[in-house]
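User: Before I run my own analysis I want an independent prediction to cross-check against. Here's the chain; please return only the structure tokens and, at the end, one sentence I can use as a sanity check.
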Amino acid sequence: MSRVSPASSAAVPFPRVDGLRPNSLADLVDHAAAGRLGPDPAEVRVSVAFVTRQGVRHASRESGYRNHVVSFRVERAVGSCAVEPDEVPDDVVYDCVGAPVLDLLAHPVNAVRVAALDAYLMAAHPHERVADAAVTVPGGSSLEKSMARAAAVTDLVPARPGQTVLVVGVVNSLLSHLRTRGLRYLPCDLKDGVTEWGEPFVADCMAVVDDCDVLLASGMTVGNGTFEPLLRHARRTGKPFVLFAQTGSAVLPWFLGSGVTAVSAEPYPFFWLDGGPSVLYRYGGNAS
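Assistant: Structure tokens:
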């Protein structure tokens, strides 16, 4: 079982800059580039840039998946953006070493912009200082850690038995916990496939979004362009919108109270990298 504790006795609620409510990701980038969210981004540089490549198939599971993640280190923080396998050439990533964050916020590759923004915001506003709660995922097998992490994420989903959750970015462990709670779900993913229970993925989440009561989406939506359509839907309808974020873990909390209900933020190193304990941070919702 995961252990939940306050992230800090002096946690600072969002927004962390008085009156700042970004309308979009571009709006948040503009605020960061203008130095409104932290130190002058022209003076802050990326010291390390790398790509993590991973393939996984948990014991007893019928299918697996692959992850490629672009990451930048800014001071103590590591910001990340997941990409499709081989979508971003290594040279593009390595060329960012030593670059000012300001330059990377205007980079032509979206994953570079997101990872740079994530690292910059995390360095200026560390999760351990501002999150509502820290959750320790205990060590274990890849499946045990996946299920424990999924429990912490789905605990943020404000849904009653019989309601339908739009799940964008299929993770079978999340679906397992939703099923245990008596919830229906619409599994959406850009990749072709089926869930562990044989349910086909829906490629276009916006085609079925009207059929749900609650939205639960991966931070990967920031990298692939589906976050903002989902955000607009949540704002228009008032439906709860919960995110589980390895990509953009320090980006998405800025939208709390402005369309986003809760965020499970999981900065690098991610739970799947080793068998020891790992930490994620919860914002909003039933965070504590």
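Sanity check: The CA atoms of residues 165 and 185 lie 4 Å apart.
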